[in-house]
UniProtKB/TrEMBL annotation:
The lineage of its organism: Bacteria, Bacillati, Bacillota, Clostridia, Lachnospirales. Keywords: Transferase. It holds the Pfam family Acetyltransf_1. Coiled coil: none annotated. PROSITE patterns: GNAT (PS51186). Residues 1-112 form the N-acetyltransferase domain. This is GNAT family N-acetyltransferase. InterPro entries: Acyl_CoA_acyltransferase, GNAT_dom. SUPFAM superfamilies: Acyl-CoA N-acyltransferases (Nat) (SSF55729). One of its GO terms (molecular function) is acyltransferase activity, transferring groups other than amino-acyl groups.
Length: 119
């Protein structure tokens, strides 16, 4: 995490009372916001906390003048892929790494579309 922080990744915790239950890592570069991580502890999933972190990410990206949010995810995780699609993301390609047992799906969400829908 220290290396990511040193590279400019902005890190945010999601707390319920005093317990850290979620994490968001984003990096602003050029006209994009790179979504590195949205992590919710398993026992706290399906309560809307991930959506709240994603909305916070959108807000930060818009405030920084970014045009879109990009991410890479393990594409075999169909539930997660569908969650991103339901939140305005579209697939932009795939990457396969030698020796990795999974495919990375690249996705993006244009912020103009999001702000128009969210108004």
């Amino acid at each position: 995490m220290q290396e990511e922080f040193d590279e400019g990744v902005l890190m945010y915790g999601y707390f319920l009372e005093s317990r850290l239950v979620g994490f968001l890592g984003i990096k602003m570069a050029g006209n994009v916001c790179k979504l590195n991580d949205i992590i919710i502890l398993p026992e706290y999933r399906n309560n809307g906390y991930g959506t709240e972190l994603l909305d916070f990410c959108r807000k930060k990206a818009v405030q920084s003048g970014k045009k879109k949010i990009i991410l890479g995810m393990i594409d075999d995780n169909i539930r997660l892929r569908n969650w991103y699609i339901s939140n305005g993301f579209v697939n932009t390609g795939y990457r396969k790494y030698e020796g990795a047992p999974y495919t990375v799906g690249d996705m993006e969400c244009l912020l103009q579309q999001v702000t128009e829908v969210k108004q």
